[in-house]
Give the backbone structure.
Amino acid sequence: MTIGRVKYFQLSYDEFVCNLFGIKPNPDYPLASLHYKNNHQFYYLYADPVYLSLQRDTFFLEKKLTHDFNRNEIKDLCDGLNEMFQTKNNRFISSDEGQLLYELKKEPQIKTTLIEHIKPQSIDLFMPRGDEAMKWHAFMNEIQMFLFEHAINKIRINRGNLPVNSIWFSGGGILPKIIEYSYTSIFSNSNLVKKIVSLDSKGKVQDVDDMNQENLSNHNLIVLDEKGQIDSILELIWYKFRHKKIDQLSIYLSYQDQILQIDNTFINLFKIWKKADTLKKYFNAY
């Protein structure tokens, strides 16, 4: 167990990864464009199917339903939305990974909120903001009316799924022309990291399985989407700490819309008399 200096960031995992590479919101973190790397000529927003629940005189966003759809269903939903709402400048598209996106030839004058940041409160607090906010609110209302009796919801309800009754737009933003980072090596199994580094013609992401005592040193970045490999990685890091080949280790842990940062130096590893706190306590998750 290590003990170190602790910091918090009110960022989602994806937003924090962008920060690691110097990508800032403009006006939002350009997550949808990073996801849909097939074409960077236009502006993209996530268009997640969601379920809104009625709470007296307002609605709560209860669940993101993207992962409840198979690719054929997302394509059917995409086609239906385009039949009703496609224009010469805007259209819905589905990515190879089954993500619904909204493509615009002109940058919208709005700022959006990722679903990860939405609390169990009125969605009015999280709706698009900016010069074109009212236009987008009206557009989202039209989509809700379109989905009210859509055939796809009858299929979903019959198999025990929640109906999709709205589309939530988020993750817009303009991709930077260049990315800047000082890492000597990057090891990751994260698709997002690979997509970001691919913006740099000289960048390279190495497979986590290729990490060893020779190529692990200071100024390395290790990003894991899956925890299965963490034990072997910690063994490598511990070996480097013991032999004083690593001066400092910064650990970042993601939970909902927070990032916990723990900075460890070599001496911290031996202060076993200090009282340890659980991750749940750090995140105030009870």
Remarks:
- Residues 5-16+178-282 form one domain.
- Helices lie at 13-20, 31-35, 71-85, 133-147, 151-158, 191-197, 230-242, 279-282.
